[in-house]
Automatic annotation (TrEMBL):
<keyword id="KW-0732">Signal</keyword>
<feature type="compositionally biased region" description="Acidic residues">
    <location>
        <begin position="60"/>
        <end position="85"/>
    </location>
</feature>
<keyword id="KW-1015">Disulfide bond</keyword>
<feature type="region of interest" description="Disordered">
    <location>
        <begin position="26"/>
        <end position="95"/>
    </location>
</feature>
<keyword id="KW-0430">Lectin</keyword>
<dbReference type="InterPro" id="IPR050111">
    <property type="entry name" value="C-type_lectin/snaclec_domain"/>
</dbReference>
<dbReference type="InterPro" id="IPR018378">
    <property type="entry name" value="C-type_lectin_CS"/>
</dbReference>
<feature type="domain" description="C-type lectin">
    <location>
        <begin position="104"/>
        <end position="219"/>
    </location>
</feature>
<dbReference type="InterPro" id="IPR002352">
    <property type="entry name" value="Eosinophil_major_basic"/>
</dbReference>
<feature type="signal peptide">
    <location>
        <begin position="1"/>
        <end position="17"/>
    </location>
</feature>
<protein>
    <recommendedName>
        <fullName>C-type lectin domain-containing protein</fullName>
    </recommendedName>
</protein>
<dbReference type="Pfam" id="PF00059">
    <property type="entry name" value="Lectin_C"/>
</dbReference>
<dbReference type="GO" id="GO:0006955">
    <property type="term" value="P:immune response"/>
</dbReference>
<dbReference type="InterPro" id="IPR033816">
    <property type="entry name" value="EMBP_CTLD"/>
</dbReference>
<dbReference type="InterPro" id="IPR001304">
    <property type="entry name" value="C-type_lectin-like"/>
</dbReference>
<dbReference type="InterPro" id="IPR016187">
    <property type="entry name" value="CTDL_fold"/>
</dbReference>
<dbReference type="InterPro" id="IPR016186">
    <property type="entry name" value="C-type_lectin-like/link_sf"/>
</dbReference>
Length: 220
């Protein structure tokens, strides 16, 4: 009798262990991987919930050694606006018209490469605006067409990452809501850097070190 009872208990323990193992979510499962990083390339869709919530979930190891400096270089200090900022020459820029979504909006493409923070300072100081924010696929397509005039592979837009550790949040330099994302394959989870670029071919977004020097687009 005791032998039967012991066998029954062992069977129950084995079944419970199997249930718990199957019930727990696995990071390597297709469902979880799809939730963390959906491929937006060629689809025009969002990067899962990451683009809508503004949260960044790191899938790799720690950031590069200069991650702290890179993060600090992503935001514009209001005090910096009082410093002497040399505005781009007229021939270095392209005036861009507004569109149906905002006829009173103006945009300016600056061909001269600058670091992210310096680019934002130029937008604020010289044009009383900010690096451009993008909230729809249609506008992303327009910005992509503009950016091709630079003959560069990437340009700065106004997106950046605030915060540290494994859970960060996306922000726009103009303070608008983060409600759209058009990420390249593997981005943003596998990306490096705290600032966001737009690819001039395809219009997809990538994370990049803020100290890179790239052309940029101001909105004002």
């Amino acid at each position: 009798m005791k032998g039967c009872l012991l066998l029954l208990l062992l069977l129950l323990g084995t079944v419970s262990a199997l249930y718990l193992e199957n019930d727990a979510p696995h990071m390597g499962s297709p469902e979880t991987q799809a939730d963390l990083s959906q491929d937006a390339e060629g689809s025009g869709g969002q990067e899962g919930e990451l683009a809508l919530s503004g949260e960044v979930v790191e899938s790799g190891g720690e950031e590069a050694e200069d991650a702290h400096d890179d993060e600090g270089d992503s935001e514009s200090d209001p005090d910096d606006l009082d410093e002497d900022v040399q505005c781009p020459k007229e021939e270095e820029t392209v005036q861009l018209p507004g569109g149906p979504e905002c006829k009173r909006c103006y945009y300016r493409l600056v061909r001269t490469p600058r670091r992210f923070r310096h680019a934002q300072r130029i937008c604020r100081r010289c044009y009383r605006g900010n690096l451009v924010s993008i909230h729809s696929y249609r506008f992303d397509y327009r910005v992509t067409r503009w950016s091709r005039r630079t003959n560069q592979s990437q340009v700065w837009i106004g997106g950046f990452i605030r915060g540290r550790s494994r859970c960060r949040r996306f922000r726009w330099t103009d303070g608008s809501r983060w409600n759209f994302g058009y990420w390249a394959r593997g981005q943003p989870g596998n990306g490096r850097g705290h600032c966001i670029t737009l690819c001039t071919r395809g219009g997809h977004w990538r994370r990049a070190p803020c100290k890179r020097r790239l052309p940029f687009i101001c909105s004002y």
